Amino acid sequence: MRMLRVACSLIATFLLAGAVQGADSASIAGKISFDGTPPKPKKIKMDADPQCAAMHADSPAFYEDVVVNDNGTLKNVFVYIKSGLPAGKTYEVPKDPVMINQKGCHYEPHVFGMMAKQLLLIKNSDDTLHNIHAMPTINEEFNKGQPSGSPDLKRTFTKPEVMVHFKCDVHPWMSAYVGVLDNPFYSVTGNDGTFSLKDLPAGEYEVVAWHEKYGEQSQKVKVGEGEAKTSDFKFSKPAE
């Protein structure tokens, strides 16, 4: 009898472990390639603000609208799940804030993601005046000056919106983008051009890759429980 109870307990543990492993255990990953000759990096002229120019006297700053990595991949691509998630399911908003920093007279990061109603901290690390001007089409616009040494600004976006553009009216070369979603399934490509969307429930999804210069591409990807799928994208410069 004791052996029977032990066997039943082991079976129950095994089944429970399998259920936990199978729940929201799918993933989609890939890379964003660039096809063609990479455009030459364009240097930013900051002469309009001597303090900004001085920051980059020995290390020039470059525009980040098109950054092709050494391995032929594309940086700053926002990848997210556009459709296919279970209807009616809600996701907890992270308690940790997201930060955008005005440092070296440019925004860090250039492209990022967050969830609707998540706290956004806006920091000015420079010894000069900045202003953060968010230009959404669905959410509420804001335009706030931030002198050097001032406290971090706190803002939220209440509705999903892909993408929201930031600019600085004091320094017109400053630009950044945020993708605001109602779920945590997004990623931004970095120096290796890869992305990863983890902890997905099994299903068929529309995966979208967004780039500020080259637009959007989408793919349908079907994944099962515990399955890992690859979904690669390729962008190229439009013909002139």
Structure, explained:
The protein has 240 residues and is mainly β. The chain has one domain (25-236): Cupredoxins -  blue copper proteins (Immunoglobulin-like, Sandwich), CATH 2.60.40.420. Helix content is 11%, strand content 41%. The protein is built from two helices and 17 strands. It has helices at 2-22, 50-55; strands at 26-35, 78-83, 98-103, 106-108, 111-115, 120-124, 130-135, 142-146, 153-155, 161-167, 175-181, 186-188, 194-200, 203-211, 215-223, 228-230, 233-236. The strands form four sheets. It has a five-stranded mixed β-sheet, with no helix packed on it. Strands 1, 13, 16 and 17 form a four-stranded mixed β-sheet that branches. The longest helix has 21 residues, at 2-22. The protein is globular and about 55 Å long. The chain starts with a helix and ends with a strand.
